[in-house]
């Protein structure tokens, strides 16, 4: 079982030992991301993530940092989302102290030099270009713009080329000082946990700033009619994302939403994969997912379809949404989907890094919800909840979320008129 401990400065440590593991994963999660930004600082959370790899007082450049981990075969990376930022290193258990030394130095000793900031601007602007040129990656951002509009929740996590180009060293120093605090930060160790881990982690992270971060602007969900957002792009394939609002993280129907997403587009035997691709030949990729933030949530289907057959594709997705509100899922299909989720979970939690991320994500989401005292959910407890879901539960929740007034459609392709699609959202 995982154990949560407070270090001497108030920083939170989670340890999740795995019997027989020969590796250790170190993950530092901070409950901050692009939702904590404003117009001028849009993209700063992500840019700062990059800067932690650019040199410290102790290790002055990227090569010095990465060479230490490369020479022991370590794996490492970082990520930024709208509500959390994470940094991880996975090494042989004998190299755990090295991982702690390097990551704590990166997070507490980075210099954020102006020279490196200017150089990295070019890197991140090219990252922006990569997303803009890849509709498969881009469509989810357009969908969230459709949902949340001109708010931090609707802005791209990476920011804009204009904001990226404007950042100066003091922006990074100020953001780091305000947001990387003990109250919203977690150190996670999973795998082969060294003896005296608490004291060891405490010694490396003791200078982490105490206190709480500046809060984010809460999302206000409100929708009374279907919404459409078109992003014009001359493409050979249209990319669409059609979905509905659901509920925030820790909602009472969260597991049901995940099951509905799996039924619709979670596998190669899911309803939309069979209907859109196998029976009608309308797409190569189609998937449905359920996303829960701390103050909002949604379920959406994404697909790449022929430009001249997009209306047919939308109609098929709408039909499958409606079916779930009218017909009970058969016992055979329901059992298959539950077994699918169980198997995928086992495959996805084989490594210490997967376990660290499983608990770390819960910690940073939970700390952002006032009054959320939900205990950490183990994988087995999650699967227990999935097993309890009935066909009646699925139809009940489907009726709640698949409301025509709450439909949202985002499209990237050679279209300029919303009216041709509005008539389909019924």
Name a few traits of the molecule.
single chain; alpha+beta; 16 helices; 44% helix; 426 residues; 11 strands; globular; 18% strand; five-stranded mixed β-sheet; six-stranded mixed β-sheet
Describe the protein in words.
This protein is α+β, with helices and mostly antiparallel strands. 44% of the residues lie in helices and 18% in strands. The protein has 16 helices and 11 strands. Strand 4 and strand 5 (85-92) form a beta hairpin. The longest helix is centred in the first third of the chain and has 19 residues, at 114-132.
Runs in which pLDDT lies below 50 for 5 or more consecutive residues are none
- Helix tally? 16
H-E string: EEEHHEEHHHHHEHEEHHEEHHHHHEH
In whole angstroms, the N-to-C terminal distance is 48 Å
Classify the secondary structure makeup into a structural class. alpha+beta
Give the amount of beta strand, in percent. 15-25%
Strand order of the largest sheet: 1-2-6-3-5-4
The value of Rg in angstroms is 23 Å
Shape: globular
Helix content: 40-55%
The total beta strand count reads 11
Mean pLDDT: 97
Largest sheet: 6 strands, mixed
What does this entry show, briefly?
This protein has 426 residues and is an alpha+beta fold. It has 16 helices and 11 strands. It has helices at residues 44-51, 62-70, 96-109, 114-132, 135-148, 161-166, 169-179, 197-205, 254-265, 271-279, 310-326, 331-348, 352-366, 379-388, 391-401, 419-422; strands at 3-6, 12-17, 23-30, 75-80, 85-92, 185-191, 227-232, 237-245, 286-292, 297-306, 407-413.
